[in-house]
Structure formats: C-alpha cells, structure tokens
Amino acid sequence: MLDIETFDNTRGGNVVYKALSHPLAARALAALAERAGPVALFDPDGIAAPLLALCPSLEIEGLYVQDTQAIGQVRAGHVARALLDLPHARVGTVLMAAFDAGRVAQHLRGLLPPGAELLTLDEVKLPEAWLTVQGRYLEARNFATNFVFFRDDGHFATRLTTANYWAGYGAKAVLFQHILFGRGGQVLAEWAQPAPAQPGGYVLDSQEIRARFGLKPFTGQLFIHAIGVAGHDVVKYALDTYATDNGASLSCTHDANAWPSARFAGLPAPREDERVILWVQNSHGVSIPPGGLALDRMGADSPVALEEEIPPFATRALDVAELFPNLRWPAQLEVRSGMHIVRPRYEVAQSGRTRIAHVNVERADLQPDPGILALHPAMGRGYLLPFPVLPRGRFKTTALPTPMVETERDMPLRMDVFTPDGEKIVEKFLGRLPRNHDCAVDLDDVLPQDALPDGGHAELAYDFREGGEADGWMHALFRYEDRANGHAAESSFGAHIFNTLMTYKNEPQSYTGKPPGLSTRLFLKLGFGGRESFCVLIYPTSAPWVESSSTDLELYDAEGTLLETARIHIACSGSKIVRPAQYFSPSTLKVAGEAGYVLIRDTTCRLFGFHGLENEAGGFSLDHMFGF
C-alpha cells in the first residue's frame, strides 16, 4: 500500500500529497531522481514517506532530522539520523524535503558534505502560471484538481459538464489545464481552456477533443486542474457516457472525488447475464505493483489480488469474473486499492447495453458511534438516506445497502416510503444486516401494485429494535430498470441528517458555513444531441420542518447570464420529478444552449437530488446531483 495521507473528514485534504502526486510534479520528481543520484534526505516536515512512495526511484543514502525526538524513528524504511551527522554523508547531493525552502536552505549549506549540491522540492514546483496563490505554494487552491474517466472508442463517448461556480465566490478568471492519458498511461493531449468569466456552464465532449487533436479511439483518464479559483479547491462535474454507434446505452456519474482511498465499496457482483467491469485507473506517476490491488467479497476478508503491474496513469479494464468467477448479484465486492486510485467507475454490460456508475470511499477512520443510538428527540429520525422511486408502471426500483466503513459489522435498517405529497405509506424493517448480507430490496415486494404510479421516494433509516451499531456512514446502491426495454441505471450515496434546527456533530451539513445547512444549491445540466435532462428532487426531513419548499429553478446560459426563474414547491417529506422543458420555453432553452444549466436554489430547506438524461430510444441515466 502506498504510504500516503490523502483526505480525512476532520482535517480535510493533504496539500503535500496533492503537490507530490500532480502529474507535472511526477515528471519533475523522476527527472530530479535521475539527476541527483544517491542523496542524503533532510526531512524537516516529516514528508519522507509520501515523497518516497510517489518517487521510489530516489536512491537514499540516509535520512536526517532536526527534531531530537525523531532521531531513531523509522520513516519510509529508513532510520532517522541527527542532522549534525549530515556532513559525514558520502553523497554528492543533499535533498531537503520541503517546499518554499529558501531561508532554511541557506542555513543548511554550512552542513553539506564536501562538494555536495543542495536541492529542495522547489525543484519540482508547478510552473507559476499553474498557481492560484503566488508565494504560498502549499495552499489548497493551488491544487484544485480531479480525474475524469474519459473515453471515445467508436462505440461510446463521454461528456463532462460543470460550471464556473468559483465566480460566485469572487473568482475573476478561471483557467482549466487538461492532461489526457491513454490506456497505457501515455499522454495523448495537453491543453488549456478558459472558463466563462461569470458562473457559466463548461463542457468537454470527447468527440470534440478527439477531433481537435486528431486522436485515435481511446479509453483513459483526463486530469483537470482549475487555476484562479476562489472559495474552495473542489472540482465537481457530471459525466455522461453515451453511445455513438446508434446503440441504446446512456449513463451518467457524479465527480470522481480527487482523493485516493485504501478501500472502496459498493461494487455489485454480476447477474448471470451480466459482466461487471471495474475500470482501474492508476492515479499516480508510480506503477501499481503486482498484487497491489485486490477484490474481496464484502465481509469475507479473503481478498484476491490482481497479479499484474499497472503502469503510471494507465487504465485497466478488470472483469470481476477474472478474480471471482462464481460470485453473483446481490453479493457485492470491496476494492482493496492500496491507495493507488481515486473513486473508480464500473461498467455493467447486459444484452447489448452498458451502464456506468461509481463505487464509494470506504472509511477507515470511523468507529461505531453510541451517540447515534441515543440521539436527542430533537434530531427526529436522525440519519436518512433518501432515494427516488421512479414511476412504477415503467420502472423497477431496487435498493442494496452497502457497508462503507471498515469496522462496520452490521446495519440495523428500516425503509420508509413516501408519496410525492409527503405521505408515508410503507414502513419496512430490514433487520440487522450483516456485513456480508445479500439483501437487495425490490420495491415491488414492499409496495402495493398500484402504489406510486407517478413515482415518489424512499428513505433508509437506522432502526435499533433488534440492537446493532451505527456509525453515521450509511450507504446503499439504487438500481432502476425499465420493465419494457431492459435499460437500467444505478447510483449510490450516503446518509445525512436533514432539515433540523438542532445539530449533532457536523450534521446537518452545509455547502458553506456551519450547520444547520438549511439551503440548497444543486446543479442540473441541460440536455444535448436530442437528449433531455431531468432530475428528481427530494425534500427529506429528519424532524418536522417547513410545510413545503420554496424552490427556484434558475436557468443560466453558457456565459453565466441568468435567463429566467421558475418557482416550484415540494411537500415536506415529498418529492418531484423536474424537467426543464416543463418550466422554460423551447426558445429560452435554445438561448441557454447545451452548455447552459439550471441552478436549483432554495433558502428554506435542504433538498437532495438525482439527475439524469432521457433519449428518444427509451434510454435514461440517473445519479445523485452535486451542489456548490
């Protein structure tokens, strides 16, 4: 496993990791290692482990520290020596593992071995034109980056849609830098492209990129770096995968989440007539070694390794049947990724159609929380995981709870089902589901045949009537299938406490400021190429809140101009299917263009949503929305 620290929910992201793992830094580190030869490594900030994990070609003579308490500690396999011993190192190069190291480096020069050259990590800094904050390199906004599964292979194309939401935080000019990697990790194209000056839409379509650079068919990953951002350093996007060969496939996924994790969960095993492909995309400039990635049947604790090397930034299509030939739905798999990849996509192929979804980060830092079992009555039903129930005449809806914490032993759950008007019509106790459960809940088995003809929603909640534990990181996978044509979509997400005035730890969450997060800013892209967008908005409430929402649909064009606003109302504990064409005229939508979008805004309550596309062939996609 890579010895790196990436992200945790307490401290946020590790900027040193971002600085060392950036593709440009990876190139510079490799060049530095080749130039330097054997080095004495001075580690004033304790970053030797990630440095050597991400640049194993550095040849270390010894590791030196200034802190007397650190002498004798083992860092990255090296026993720390006192800095006073540095003059005796038999090397031609001393590497100081620090950025912005000028002042300290001056004091170090008198300790160098005879004839040795002093280098610092300033040698591998990004070019100044790539930096948002000059003069303070390890600033989070200098590393507003993310990875994108990107493909254009003659059968499928991909389309990224986002907006310059940083303009709303005061950003003046945002520039996107892009590096496109092919299947083998080779660079296919690099380019810069400005975002709109205002909070306008931003689209990257693989067909256009392929034509622009004269590329052959490819499947790989796109690295995107936003420069000039304000407010925060998170690059969010929606990604559509669509058929280009008159096929019926259509799917969408949320952003990839820029941080690697040791484990991911929520990977479904295939049905008898399916293939499930995990797209393993190496996120670093160092190879994934044979055995460095494995799959495990959730709860079995018997991982099966992929005994194959995956080169830097390369993409490998891993059919789960290669490692688990007999495992079938509703069993699920855990990805033991060794910190090598960010949240990966998986693809399900069935009867000539494919659908793409993503797994989720499995938390290693959580333990069962006894406070959840004794939540104050003011928190009502506490943690909720809402999901759409699509109109039942056309669609089958299935929910598969997915353990998402390494210490999670059981999941004591209940499912509550609501009409669009907020009436609870069913309450079903699912039991204390063990970690290795195979409980996929078909809503057809829960609801009367004539219930929810126009759709509604359901919520998973903790229920301790038979005991059990909870950690607040409840997740599930939701699968939607067209009863007539077999097209399917699936999405997964986690629970929160919704719409309570009182708080518990960091819940309810807010996009900005402290909880309670009683506001909504959700992004809904518009359709393209004859495909129309839609979303399902859910107003979940852990405790009673306002009777109905006051939700504005704000239509923006590609330049960020607000064209028109429409207001809708959603009942407390209710839901609504929203199609832009129902609220805006064809002429106004044409002005907005395919790079336009709808901002779903509400200052009275926190909504949760799922977005997707529909095409004329009966295809559809669905995944959870993102906000900013």
Describe the fold and architecture:
- The protein is mainly β.
- It folds into 3 domains: 7-128, 3-Layer(aba) Sandwich (Rossmann fold); 140-361; 370-624, TM1070-like (Hypothetical Protein Tm1070, Chain: A).
- The protein is built from 8 helices and 42 strands.
- The strands form 10 sheets. It has a 6-stranded mixed β-sheet with strand order 5-6-4-3-7-8, with no helix packed on it. Strands 20-19-22-17-25 form a 5-stranded antiparallel β-sheet, with no helix packed on it. A 5-stranded antiparallel β-sheet has the order 29-28-31-26-34, with no helix packed on it.
What's the topology here?
Elements: E1 7-8, E2 12-13, H1 15-21, H2 23-36, E3 38-42, H3 48-54, E4 59-65, E5 74-75, E6 78-82, E7 93-96, H4 102-108, E8 117-120, E9 144-152, E10 156-163, E11 175-181, E12 187-194, E13 201-205, H5 206-213, E14 218-227, E15 238-243, E16 250-253, E17 263-268, E18 275-281, E19 294-297, E20 304-305, E21 315-319, E22 332-336, E23 345-350, E24 353-358, E25 360-361, H6 370-373, E26 383-389, E27 395-401, E28 410-418, E29 424-434, E30 441-442, E31 456-462, E32 475-482, E33 488-494, E34 496-497, E35 520-525, E36 532-538, E37 551-556, E38 562-568, E39 575-578, H7 580-583, H8 586-592, E40 597-602, E41 608-614, E42 623-624
Parallel strand pairs: 3-4, 3-7, 4-6, 7-8
Antiparallel strand pairs: 1-2, 5-6, 9-14, 10-13, 10-15, 11-12, 11-14, 15-16, 17-22, 17-25, 18-21, 18-23, 19-20, 19-22, 23-24, 26-31, 26-34, 27-30, 27-32, 28-29, 28-31, 32-33, 35-40, 36-39, 36-41, 37-38, 37-40, 41-42
